[in-house]
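Feature request, filed as a ticket because there's no other form

It would be nice if the structure record came with a short human-readable summary line next to the tokens. Right now we just get the raw output. Example of a typical job, pasted below so the devs can see what we mean:
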Amino acid sequence: MEGNPNEPYSPVPILGGNGLDLFGTGIIRLIYPQIEQRLSLIYGNRIQNADPAVTYAIQQSAMHPGSANVIGSGQKLAPNRPLNEVLLEIDGGFNVLVVKGLEDQVSSPEVAKSRAELFSRLNPGKVIVDTIADAGHCPHDEQPAKVARSMIQWLATLKEDSMEVEVKPQSETV
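Raw output as currently delivered:
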């Protein structure tokens, strides 16, 4: 692990926390009127999961006084690494399961298929890709039985010795 938990927090340079709150507020105002439409894309294959209660819960959370800070704080995180880069680096431990819905309306079915093909070629033997033809962006929510079956099959392939993790005493990690 990198970093020192004992170092004092330093705000984001230039605009600081107020700038992040402003950024978060802008994002929420942009997306808030689109929540229902975005949910229909995300749950396109199982639209009943985007019921009014889910829409209301998301809208209510977006209006919470701290929500802009949560969105803005994401800008302080380290830059994202592309998933294909992360999957390429898997070399020890156990295999990784990637379950991909092929009817993803958020990125597009074409992108979902090409990403599944790319992931399956990246690190053969370490990255296991299972595609679900009749699922979209949230396969675990749209086809829970198929995702569970995929996970059970994947778990059965793991060897007991590959799941051992070295745990260092607290004093050695600081």
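Something like this underneath would help us a lot:
Residues 16-31 form the longest helix (16 residues).
The mean pLDDT is 81.
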